[in-house]
User: What shape does this take?
Amino acid sequence: MNIRFLHWPIRALAGKPVPNARRYGNEDAPPLRSELFGMLQLESHAKRIAALHQVRVERGPERLLARLKRNQEVIRESHASIVKAMRRRRHVAPAAEWLLDNYYLIDEQIRLALTHLPRSYSRELPRLSEGPYQGLPRVYDLILQLVSHTDGRVDSENLSRFIAAYQSVNALTLGELWAVPIMLRLTLIEAGCNNASLAKCPVYSRTLTPATAY
Assistant: This one.
C-alpha cells in the first residue's frame, strides 16, 4: 500500500492540556487528546479495542457524509473568524495560527473526500452497535483511535502494525480494508476540525502593536 501522509498535530498548544473541543461548538467532536502511544502500546491498544468492538452488519443510515459536512462548516467558520481577528490586528493563539497555515490543505482534503465518498458507501460497512461511536463504521473508530494516540502522525508502519494487531483478535472484512485510506482521510479531517474548534476559543486577547503586527 503506497500511502502519502501528512502530519497534522492535534495538540496545537504545545506543553499545555488541550481544551475540550465540545465547549467550542463541535458537540460531535472526538476526544482527540488521548495519551500518546509508542508502537508496542499501539498494538496492545488495537487488540484491546478489537476485543471490545461489537458490530452489526445490516445496512444502516449514512452518517459519515453528514459528519464530514459538519466538520467542514466548523473549519470554515473558524477560519473566517480568525481572518477577521487578524484584520483587526488581534493576537491569536497557536491553534488559530495552525489553522491559518493549514486551511487550504484541509479544505482540499474535504473536497476530495466529498468527491470520493459515495453516499451509500459506509452503509455497506459493519457498524458499531454500542459505545460513543454507535452507528458509525467500525473501521472509522479503529482509524480514529490510531490518529488520536499518535497525535495525527500516521505512517505506513504504524498503520500496518495497528491493523495487523487488531486483526489478530478480530478480523476486518475486505470492504473495511479497502476503506482504510478514506477513513484515514476522514479522521485526519476530524483532527483538523478539532483544532478549528480550539481556534474559536476566546484567544484574541490583545491588539497587536506596530512592532509586532504584520
Summary: The mean pLDDT is 77.
